[in-house]
Specification:
alpha+beta; five-stranded mixed β-sheet; four-stranded mixed β-sheet; 3 helices; about 25% helix; globular
Length: about 160
């Protein structure tokens, strides 16, 4: 089942604390009606969901965070390879939260997720919020050509 929403949760993820922070973030997201949470590194850049790697499609290119503080998952590496084999440019970089607004598609990858589109991301705050932590916006996405192509290619690969 594709995540219906994801709340953004800041916090460092290192060593044994990764599992605990991910669990707490997911519990908080589920309590708010979401299915998962997006996590940030100590610089405020997007890293991953609580149990999956994150991808954004921006101008037809596949953008994914640099795995310098989170697990560079096997499914992530396979999807990157598939994207390149389909001629999709892959950009690994540090991604500020605000750049979610420029994404036309967002999806998560992982052993349990395979390639799952994200339909919305809620719980985002904006600098113009009148109170600290005030939720001011939710972003909506539709699975597009890149997500469908990679989901189909991954499914075909693992079922062959």
């Amino acid at each position: 089942m594709a995540p219906a929403a994801a709340r953004v949760r800041a916090g460092p993820r290192q060593g044994a604390g990764q599992y605990a922070i991910g669990t707490l973030a997911r519990n908080e997201a589920e309590a708010a009606g979401a299915q998962d949470a997006l996590l940030l590194d100590h610089r405020g850049h997007l890293t991953e969901a609580t149990g999956a790697n994150l991808f954004l499609v921006v101008d037809g290119e596949l953008h994914t965070p640099v795995p310098d503080c989170f697990l560079d998952g096997i499914t992530r590496r396979v999807v990157i390879g598939l994207a390149r084999s389909y001629g999709i440019r892959v950009v690994e970089r540090h991604i500020p939260v605000g750049e979610l607004e420029s994404a036309s598609e967002v999806f998560l990858t992982g052993t349990a997720y395979e390639v799952q589109p994200v339909r919305s991301i809620g719980g985002l705050t904006h600098a113009s919020a009148s109170r600290p932590g005030e939720v001011t916006r939710t972003l909506a996405f539709r699975p597009g050509e890149v997500t469908r192509t990679l989901a189909d290619a991954y499914a075909k690969l693992v079922r062959s």
